[in-house]
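Table 4 source record.
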Amino acid sequence: MINCPCGFGENLGDDQKNCPACGTDLTPLHLLNKLPEFYYKKGMILLEKGQIDEATKMLMTCITLNYSSPAPFVALGDIFKQRELYDEAIKHYERALEINPNDEKIARKKEEAEKFKSYKASSQSKQYLQVTLLKKLAITGTAILFLMLIVIVVLLKRLENQHKKYLDLLNKSQITLTEKRSFEFLYTVKKGDNLSSIAYKFYGDKSMWIKIYEANKSKIKDPDKIYQGQILSIPILQGKD
């Protein structure tokens, strides 16, 4: 459920494309509302594949977006416990219990982490490794959060400008919207990616690679040559008759 910035459209569901009060296109807000769940699901898929570092990044991004479920905190607690970072594991289990205090399974996980912590307390060398790894994860999480904040600010700015435009138009006359508005995600190219595979990932159609290429002509000289780490704009078109 979301609320329109106009202050009159409240508790609007996913099927509500426009604010019933002011007519604002609610697509950006719906996208923002779905981001935490997107990063949680992505993190769990990576975790199942054994890509622990990448899964940790996704889950940390999820909780920075104020995900209301205890699930990402439990998953992070399990990861940190596996890596013998018991203080971090306990902290995340506690956060999960704040959300769901009656969950006995989470409580047992916390107790187990506390026992392991006491067993390993005398090992100074392992404590040093734990602190080193924790710092690396904290730096990575901060970098991800910074990038996400940039995306959120851009989307909110577009929403604000669109809202002002609609109010000006409504003050003059009733207008039927026929234009298309585009939104975009920022995607970092992974090893083995090409435009066709990225198009399939976002659109389910490899032939849509041309849409990504046209949106990134300033970055891509040859559509057959993209490189790992390159950040591409992935257009997501929304239309209204």
